[in-house]
Amino acid sequence: MKNLKFTLRPGVLSVFLLAGLLPLYAQAPQEPRQIVRSAMEAELSADLNDHSRWKYRDAQKDGIDTVSIVVETDHGAVKRLISRWGRPLSDSEARVEDARVQTFIHDPSQLAKQKRDGMQDGKNAEELLRMLPDAFTWKIQSEDEKNITLHFEPNSKFSPPDMQGRVLGQMAGELVVDKGQNRIVTISGKLTEDVTIGWGLLGRLRQGGTFRVERREVAPGLWQIVETHVHIEGKVLFFKNIGQQQDEVQTDFVEVPHGTTLEQAAEMSKPVK
Question: What is the phi/psi pair of residue 170, to 5°?
Fold first, then answer.
């Protein structure tokens, strides 16, 4: 899934207007679980039909504060670092970064790896999204003209199929759904207890770890993740990508024309002087 990366990295759960579904506000009252299921189905449907590509500014804090420009194309995404620790790259650093970008766009193996990683992220996101209705017990917390907020707690009857499911199933938090478009606006959660792997011998994720994913409509009917925050403490020997600290904010979305080449994307990613 390209729009709802709801993996616990981010990426945590990217994360789509379903043809034929009426908006939530126009339907008869629904059970909380059905509201979640309808939103999940809408997201999956819209993801299949969303072929948009975007240029955006990506700011990350995961040990090193960086800002990059990302330009998506049908052939891959170009990501160019433009600042580190709050300062623009020097001329020499910019030349090194440009050489890295040029190497990337002309290296079939790197492009293939990016594609494989993206497909795996999409698969993980879809699996986690499909778990949402059944992994938790749901109740409506609040509602206004635009959104409905649901609270979730772990469902003791849920049997997670894998490690991601185990972590997800120990979360409690909130899900905000846009009633007009049936889209997931925000999902946030906190680990309600330690998650142990191999009776704690292989790893342990600490109770109290949190995540939050924010999504916004960046063009009519087109939604993107704009913020990802993951703060999970712990040590996992064989699943290092699960426990991590990350804050990522994406802004300045501009749609990229279809047919844009990687070479054109590399030029588009250069900062304006």
Answer: -105, 10
